[in-house]
Amino acid sequence: MSARGVVLAGVGGQGVVLASAVLAEAALQSGFEVKQSEVHGMAQRGGAVVSHIRYGDTVASPIVPLATADVLAGFEWAEALRWLPYLAPGGALVVDARRIVPPGACRDHRRWGVPYPPLDPTSIAGRTGAVVLIDATGIAGTLGNVKAANSVVMGAVSRFLDLSDAAWEKAIARFVPPRTVDLNIEAFHAGQQAETLDPADIPELGLDPLPERHYHIDVNEAWCKDCGICPSICPEFCLALDDAHRLVVVDEEACTGCRLCEVLCPDFAIRIVTPVGAQGGAR
Amino acid sequence: MTIVDIRPHLREWAMPHVLCAGCAHGIVGRAFLVATDRAGIDPDRMVVVAGIGCSSRLVGYLDFCTLHATHGRAPAFATGVKLARPELTVAVFSGDGDGLAIGGNHLIHAARRNIDLTVVLFNNEIYGMTGGQVAPTTQRGAIASTTPRGNTEPAFDSVALMIGAGASFVARASASEPFTLERIFTEALTHRGFAFVEVLSDCPTYFGRYNRLGDGPEMLAWLTRQDSRVAEPLAAKRVVDHLPIPEAPPGLDLGVLHREERPVFTGRRSG
Ligand SMILES: Cc1ncc(C[n+]2csc(CCOP(=O)(O)OP(=O)(O)O)c2C)c(N)n1
Ligand code: SF4
Ligand code: SF4
Ligand code: SF4
Ligand SMILES: [Mg+2]
């Protein structure tokens, strides 16, 4: 058998790494050669986590080449979209309808605020084979623990892989915490049976639009010594030193009002004027 | 938490202040002003006493009742103020040279008495005002104008000293973390008894230049790395390679490091 490739993607804390260990073990139990590789991106901050698993009679590389994955399992909608290029034409997309909005998509970043993509499988029509959109987190919650959502997803993934239930169950029992084995096996079977959601039934995310706030960066030029501290710490690059090494406000529009410049200026020379009605009030 | 505008607490007519561009002392002064506001202290009942040094010089810009005293003797002056007018809130601004070298005795005895003062000790590891001489806080190996080939003496741990002397509130904070500074100063100002806060500050003009640590922005980053919670050990950044440093300094513990309830000295037989 030529090697099969599976990509699992989610965010930190969702159990992606554990799920990939379970899949690798199930494939080993079934007598295949298995290679696995994972990347934890800023898991502490909920950043992207992705794992590649390849198994077959012989497997050379642990990395699933672009556009060859048989299954892409997304533990979160936007992460599934991010890894879509790895899916083979006609490959199956299994995805939890859960949405975890990354900080960059919702914070008051003016310049690079990116909206969270709409949860709408029609937006990726033609780029996948079967799409299994399930409420894995909801199902796991009904069973008693939302943390078992990863097992629900793997149950849905198992529909597209040629591994026996016995192999999966053994693998789950080996990797999940001992007291949660039964729960996870139950979650796995629930995932095998889970119905594909109608996107129309999925509630809107209800994210507030980016707040329309404009901060005024009030620099007291008579006090500023052009020390360079505020340009070096402004996260939005609103401030800079010009060629003459003088402080200039280059992009007031991008200011998010974080006030780092204000509290780190040793010369009391900078103050952020908050818009009327916003938190803290005008001043 | 409400945003405090500190400009009303400044003597604007005296500004801009005399400290060098990028010197972190001003960041500390600003956080202190925010803390007095948060602690609800009436500016007319706030007294700040300072010794001599760039850090001490800051009191000239604070619109409180301020007293610029003699080198190292600020705790003694402050003791007098507090005993005569116990209803006032009294704080001391002092440098590492001011408070730990020439003024070491005054500092430890004020702590021993547990008199109700808040002492802010600006530690920039050097005598900034007088041109960068070695201080009792200069780390081994560091260069100062009087130790051009690197300091051979160990440095004071002022936090251990103050706990030993009897201070009932002891904290260490860094100028690179102004929001934490604001919080710790607020706690120190509301503590009843002797409160001591060592603040890791900097001196880009001398210490930074001698030790090739960069200007204000780079030195702020360097301050963050002294925090023991930050992995990189202090020694790794030292440029002195000809002096054997026996062991890398482990970094400094930050936060409120000691707090106790102890009878407060009021000068009276009881109370
Ligand atoms: C009795 C006396 N001795 C010496 C001096 C010279 N002097 C002025 S400031 C200073 C050291 C200040 O260092 P520090 O307290 O660390 O303050 P910094 O300037 O570093 O903030 C010295 C020795 C003096 N003013 N008075
Ligand atoms: S408040 Fe200051 S540091 Fe923050 S984004 Fe605005 S200019 Fe930059
Ligand atoms: S931190 Fe203050 S003194 Fe330094 S460049 Fe910015 S405004 Fe000027
Ligand atoms: S000499 Fe050093 S301590 Fe004094 S103001 Fe300049 S940078 Fe700050
Ligand atoms: Mg000093």
Characterize this entry briefly:
Chain A is of the alpha/beta class and 283 residues long.
Structure overview:
The complex is a heterodimer of chains A (283) and B (271). Helices cover 27% and strands 21% of the residues of chain A. Chain A is α/β, with parallel strands linked by helices and 283 residues long. In chain A, helix 4 (136-143) crosses helix 5 (149-158). The longest helix of chain A has 14 residues, at 16-29. Chain A is elongated. In chain A, 40% of the residues are buried. The mean pLDDT of chain A is 88. Chain B is an alpha/beta fold and 271 residues long. Chain B contains nine helices and nine strands. Chain B has helices spanning 25-38, 54-57, 74-84, 96-102, 104-113, 158-165, 178-190, 204-210, 216-226; strands spanning 46-50, 65-68, 89-95, 118-123, 126-127, 133-134, 169-174, 195-200, 255-259. In chain B, the strands form two sheets. Chain B has a seven-stranded mixed sheet, with helices on both faces. A two-stranded antiparallel ribbon of chain B has the order 5-6. In chain B, a hairpin with a 5-residue loop joins strand 5 and strand 6. In chain B, helix 1 crosses helix 7, helix 4 crosses helix 5 (104-113) and helix 5 (104-113) crosses helix 6. Chain B is globular. Residues 231-235 and 237-248 of chain B have low confidence and may be disordered. Chain A binds chain B through residues 222-223, 225-229, 231-233, 259, 263-269, 271, 274, 280, 283, and chain B through 2-3, 5-7, 10, 15-17, 19-27, 30-31, 176, 178-179, 182, 215-217, 220. The structure holds thiamine diphosphate, iron/sulfur cluster (SF4) (3 copies) and magnesium ion (MG). Residues 53, 95-97, 124, 126-128, 135 of chain B line the site of magnesium ion. Residues 219, 224-230, 247, 265, 267, 269-270 of chain A line the site of one iron/sulfur cluster (SF4).
